[in-house]
Amino acid sequence: MRHYKITAKGKVQGVGFRNFTKAYADSKGYTGSVQNLANGYVEIFVSLEDLGDFLEALQKGNGRMNASSFEVEHLPSLKLSSFEVLR
């Protein structure tokens, strides 16, 4: 299992991005969290095997969101047992 911090940029707030991310993560059994940031970006912490699949799903989105780019940072570990939307 690999662990990442992902910052999503673009049209990612007010368009269902966090709920979409949680639903996708839950469907795959990923653990982590997603939250809006004050600068208009969304921050995701996630533990998974296939980062490419996850980023591809977030890029396609729900039709209302448009993630223009992702900054990805590898982390040594995450200690979460589910995937949460943080407010």
Your description of this structure?
- The chain has 2 helices and 5 strands; from the N terminus they run βαββαββ.
- The chain is α+β, with helices and mostly antiparallel strands.
- Strands 4-1-3-2-5 form a 5-stranded mixed beta sheet, with helices on one face.
- The chain has helices spanning 17-28, 51-60; strands at 2-11, 31-36, 42-48, 66-75, 83-86.
- The protein has one domain (2-78): Alpha-Beta Plaits (2-Layer Sandwich), CATH 3.30.70.100.
- The active site is at residues 18, 36.
- Its EC number is 3.6.1.7.
- Residues 3-87 form the Acylphosphatase-like domain.
- It catalyses: an acyl phosphate + H2O = a carboxylate + phosphate + H(+).
What name does CATH use for the topology?
Answer: Alpha-Beta Plaits
Major sheet attributes: 5 strands, mixed
Helix content: 25-40%
Strand order of the largest sheet: 4-1-3-2-5
* Helix-strand category: alpha+beta
CATH C-level class is Alpha Beta
User: Globular, elongated, flat, extended or rod-shaped: what is the shape?
Assistant: globular
Per DSSP, the total helix count is 2
How far the N terminus sits from the C terminus, by CA atoms, comes to: 26 Å
Order of helices and strands: EHEEHEE
Number of strands: 5
- Low-pLDDT regions: none
Number of domains: 1
Average of pLDDT: 96
Oligomer: single chain
What Rg is obtained from the alpha carbons, in whole angstroms?
Answer: 12 Å
CATH structural architecture:
2-Layer Sandwich
